TrEMBL record:
The protein's name in its UniProt record: DUF2961 domain-containing protein
Pfam family, one: DUF2961
Top-level lineage group: Bacteria
InterPro entries per the UniProt record, alphabetical: DUF2961
């Protein structure tokens, strides 16, 4: 039996590797295989943290509570790759450090996102992410990569703000870009926005009712008033992706919430209306397993009972970005009919023409921190309350 099991495991892994290679090859065919041999009308450029003295201290120090501009590029071009890695004694440095990117001398940043969340690392944690646009690579997700093209006409400025009370003693970076003699063909610029909310049940009963466990499930209202907001913007552009970080304080399935995408002033119901959170992220039936595709996946799953704890989901509309002419609104329910308390954090990624207005203010550091962990001790206290309600004695817990 052992040799048979070995062969089954071997061939299972072998075919998984072959399938992954095939998928990536097919996805890349149009983007590079049919293009890579054509003449290139740009100059390859890089800004990095290499040691100008010739030594091996290839990093910069970012003092506590300070800002550092790591790239200030003049002229026209496209940023094609960003790589960061850093070390700090602050365990929440990936939430406490902020990435800002400014385009074409605009006074307001088009990107203002906590560093880890931008690169697909939630809750200040470090773990592997393997998507097409964003990659958190070994060691253990410490290497943060973006392959999202970011065009500019006259200037690109990248700033890191360390809002921690501790310095970042070593911050390494590459900014790889193509400089051009003429402006990009499009006026659309890359944007990213961070949001966070600890939601409250918005049901008429006030109950966190899912799957009819606490009585008949209420009907969802025919509007998005109480939905969680992933993005609301105005102008012309297209939406390309989403990272969603869910922290659930209950073992109940968090993902019955439908998404609603309203484009150019659509009233209810929008033509892009979903059927559940896992469906939006191209999975099914309440998954709880690590899975990563170039376009979508679950790189981090909850390790508690049921779906108690932290889950990270991502989705990129690479094959067909969601285009809008005047405005765009993307919301999602927190549980069916907005019935659940969840700590939701999201990063939206999109392109649009620059509007000379600031995005919603990024919450202060204290308001961006994680919720306290719910663990087995709290569950045992819940059981004690249940036993007291039932009159104590022999209570199994299913009554």
């Amino acid at each position: 039996m052992k040799p048979i099991i070995f062969h089954r495991l071997f061939f299972s892994k072998f075919f998984a590797i072959i399938a992954t290679f095939f998928i990536f090859s097919m996805l890349g065919a149009q983007s590079w295989e049919n293009q890579i041999w054509l003449p290139k009308n740009y100059k390859s450029e890089r800004i990095s943290s290499y040691d100008r003295s010739g030594g091996n201290d290839d990093f910069i120090v970012i003092p506590k509570n300070s800002k550092v501009t790591i790239a200030n590029i003049s002229g026209a071009g496209v940023i094609k790759h960003i790589w960061f890695t850093l070390a700090s004694k602050d365990p929440m440095i990936r939430r406490n450090a902020i990435l800002r990117i400014y385009w074409d001398k605009n006074l307001h940043p088009s990107v203002e996102v906590p560093l880890g969340d931008f690169f697909g690392q939630g809750w200040g944690e470090e773990y592997i992410l393997n998507s097409l646009p964003l990659v958190a690579a070994p060691k253990k997700g410490k290497a943060l990569n973006s392959f999202i093209p970011m065009p500019f006409s006259s200037e690109a400025r990248i700033e890191i703000e360390n809002q921690s009370d501790l310095e970042i003693p070593s911050f390494y970076f590459y900014i790889d870009y193509e400089s051009m003699k003429s402006e990009p063909a499009s006026k659309l610029r890359f944007h990213a926005w961070w949001n966070k909310s600890v939601t409250e049940p918005a049901t008429d009963s006030g109950k966190e009712n899912e799957w009819s466990l606490l009585g008949e499930t209420e009907k969802a209202p025919l509007h998005t008033k109480n939905n969680y907001t992933i993005l609301k913007t105005k102008g012309k552009g297209h939406f390309i992706g989403l990272n969603l970080y869910v922290d659930s304080p209950t073992p109940m399935w968090y993902g019955e919430g439908d998404d609603a995408i309203q484009i150019d002033g659509e009233v209810w119901p929008p033509r892009l209306h979903g059927t559940g959170t896992e469906d939006l992220f191209n999975t099914a039936w309440c998954p709880k397993e690590v899975f990563m595709h170039p376009y979508f996946g679950y790189p981090r799953i909850s390790d508690g009972t049921g779906w108690l704890g932290r889950t990270h989901l991502y989705r990129f509309w690479i094959e067909s970005p969601l285009a809008f002419e005047r405005n765009f609104q993307f919301t999602i329910e927190h549980g069916h009919a907005n019935s659940l308390t969840l700590d939701l954090v999201s990063v939206a990624y999109w392109y649009q023409e620059i509007i000379n207005e600031p995005m919603p203010v990024l919450p202060k550091k204290e308001l961006r921190q994680n919720q306290p962990e719910i663990n087995f001790r709290h569950i045992h206290k819940w059981r004690d309350s249940f036993r007291s309600e039932k009159g104590k004695g022999l209570i199994w817990g299913h009554e």
